[in-house]
Every structure is written in C-alpha cells, then in structure tokens.
Amino acid sequence: MLIAAAQFPSRRHDIAANAARMAALLARAGDLGVALVVFAELALTQYDLDAVAADPGLALTPDDARLAPVREACRANGVAAVVNVPAREPGGPAGTPGLTSFVFGPDGSLLTRYAKRHLHGREREVFTPGRAAGRFRLGGVHFSLATCYDNSFPELAEQAAADGCRVYLASSFHSSAESLAKYPERARDNGLHVLLANGVGAGSGVSGPGCGLSGAWLPDGRQVASAGPGADCPQEGELVTVDVRDTVVLMADPAVAAVPVRECGEPLVDVREAAPGLLAPEAGKLTADGAAAHLRSGVLERLLTAERALPDGLRLRLAEGYRPPALQRRYFEEYADELREAHPDWAADRVHTAASRYVSPPEIAPHSAGGAADLILTGADGTPVDMGTRLNASPEESDGACYTAAPGISAAARRARRTLGAALRTAGLVNYPTEWWHWSYGDRYWALETGADAALYGPKELI
C-alpha cells in the first residue's frame, strides 16, 4: 500500500481554491496507486490564527459543502484523505473550534476525526484541545494521527504502538528544519512508519513560513522520502510516497485469532440454486459436492447488493466460496511447504506468518466459515476483466501485484479493482489486502477491520 504526504502552498482564507488543489492532488495520487493522502496542518485555510479567531465561519463540519470537492475526489479516485481544519468539536466549548483532522475514506465517508491534543502558543486562545486518541483502519493497516506540537510528546507515539498501530501520520506546520528531528525519533523508538505532511508559505502565530520538507521514515528511523523546502514548492504541490505494505495485518496476527465468535446459525446455501442470476464457479472447478458454490446466506445477499451497484455492463463472478476445513488445512500446509523449501533458513513462525499472506491459517479461515468469496469482475457476457494478475496469483509469482493496493499495475487494472472494491465495501464486505479477489463478511477478519464485537460465523462443515 502506498501512502503519501501532500505539500502545497495554501492560499490564505481561500477554502475553495485550497479544496480544489487538494482534489487535484488526490487525483494525481489515484493515478499513482496511492491509497491515502495526508495534508498539512490547516492546509485548507492556511495556518492563520488571526483569521480563525476573527471568523467563526472558517470552522467546518465533515459534511460542509466547502469540503465537497475533497470528498468527491476521494470517491472518484478511491483514495482516502486526512484533512486538517478548524472544526466544531462535539462537547467542546461554544464558539471554540478544535484543530481537527477529518479522515475521509475512499468512498468519501468520514472514517474518524482527531482534534489536536497539545496546543502551542496562541493556539490555546483560538482552539480547544482534543481528547480522543485518533485511530483508524484502512486496507488492513492500523493508523494513528497526530498534529504538529503533539509530536513533541513521546507518549503519544508510544501509546499508538502499544495500541497496535503500525503507521503514524502527522499533519504539521513547522517553520524550521530543526523541528523535524523528532520524527525519526518517533519512528525508531516505537517501531513505527512515520509520515509527515508539513505546511509551506506564511503562517501567523509561528516564527516564520512553513519550511516544507514533508517526509517519510521507516521503523528504524531512516528517512526514505522527502519533499523540497517550502520556498521551492511548486504551485501544483508535491506528493511524498512510501510503501507500507509490510504493515498489513495478516490472518496469522494474534489479534485476528483473539476475536471471539458468536455463531449466528446462518445456513450455507448453494448460490446456483439460491441466486441463479449470479455467475457461479465454473463447473470444471467444482468438487463433486459443489462446496465452492456455497456461501452463508447473509454473504450471498450482500454479493447481490454489490452486483446491483456495479456500472452497467459489469458483473460479479464467484470463483470460490466455502472451503471445507480439511481442504483449507491442505492448501495452507502445501503453501507452507513451498516456503520452507524456498527458505530453509526461516524459523517455523516466520513460515507460518508468510504463508498467511496467501492462505489463511485453518483455524481462523474465512472460507471455512462460509464468510469469504473469491471474486472477479466480468463483462456482460462473462468475459473476465483485467484485474492486474490472475486469480490466486501468489505474492512470489506476481511480485506483490496480488496485493489489492499494489503500485505498478496498469491504470485499467487499478480502475477495475477500485470498481470492484467500491461495490463490495458499500455492501458491507471487507478485503484481505494481500489478495484483491478475497472479500468477506461475518468472519474474524471482518470483525477486526470493522470493529465488531465478535465474528458472526465460525468454521462449518458442509452437510
């Protein structure tokens, strides 16, 4: 998964122009295969404390019409965005906004919001501090949010790591390069990927103009990407990208196994009988019992909803649904054996984790619960659409292109994955980020990603 920090010179007091610039950067990010873009502190209004104090109308809500270009750009390009603005905080003092980051998902909806907890200097006169931790999940990655002066407090990054976050996102407005020294420390001390979007241009209440130099640091503290200094920032802006694919929560993660199961008792149904209009697995790929053509009834309902949401001329094909536990175990062990042969120096736990990128461990497998569907897009005549790799391409075979948000695939394949994902997310399914074709509902991974208290489906035998 590629994520990016956006750096551009905001126009003072011109929300419309700044929102348009953000939308253009989100479109550019979508073309690059970026999944998330972080903007600098108060990039929508420019960092002008005098203006915010004098004009209550600069405070926004997530559904504010002035943010419509940003939300629409997220939807059109399948890119999430972190946008920092003055915002009315629920429960905050009347007339005093928070210095708040709205996180819009790839469908334009609000994923979460985070108000800066540690205000600096005159900010204390203009804003009210926040209290929430600032966490969200996207594409199997657990993110943490912080804003500028927040990053001077090591305990925020420490708590983020303790909470299972793997990527730390900072929206800031620093006027000196020396202020950036804390970011590699936060990365190195906590084993986090750190991404900084820093402001450029004039700012009131600080010692000088924003210095730019937005950047990305690896968990060992090495900087791997940087934008130029603020004075050199082009009008159209810059994007600093970093690949955080290694932070995806895999099926082998203890957090997945820790999710409780409260079996709801939904039956497994044969989609060939229950939904004859849905393209089912090809007959030559089915076992005698037709197991792969079965799904929990609730999953099937959601697939039908997703297909109705597809653009005209496109259909879903179920390539594989239910998988008996014994078959799941066989698949897992066969792939683990391939990895052992290719990497004889790997310890058993490393083999187990690596195998879970491609085949779920049998004890928690969504397919064996009837909650997972391997899906492809087809044309109206059933001809498969180019999705960038073949179905079931392994990470080794595809050089990682099987990851849903993999960079480097064709623009057409990226659009196809985006179209597939938009329809399925709307219907309530979640994706396993190492496999663009694997979508599920009601299983443990779904529960972890959506924040549900428990999974609805446990392993089941086909009767």
Automatic annotation (TrEMBL):
Cofactor note: Binds 1 zinc ion per subunit.
Binding sites annotated in the UniProt record for Zn(2+): 367, 374, 438
Cofactor(s) needed: Zn(2+)
Enzyme active site: 435
Entry-linked Pfam families: CN_hydrolase (PF00795), Peptidase_M15 (PF01427)
Molecular function as annotated in GO: hydrolase activity
Catalytic activity, as annotated: D-alanyl-D-alanine + H2O = 2 D-alanine
Domain CN hydrolase: 1-246
Top-level EC class as recorded in UniProt: hydrolase
Keywords: Cell wall biogenesis/degradation, Dipeptidase, Hydrolase, Metal-binding, Metalloprotease, Protease, Zinc
InterPro entries: A_A_dipeptidase, C-N_Hydrolase, C-N_Hydrolase_sf, Zn_M74/Hedgehog-like
Annotated EC: 3.4.13.22
Site (Transition state stabilizer): 323
Family under the similarity heading: Belongs to the peptidase M15D family.
Physiological role: Catalyzes hydrolysis of the D-alanyl-D-alanine dipeptide.
Name of the molecule in the record: D-alanyl-D-alanine dipeptidase
Biological source species: Streptomyces ramulosus
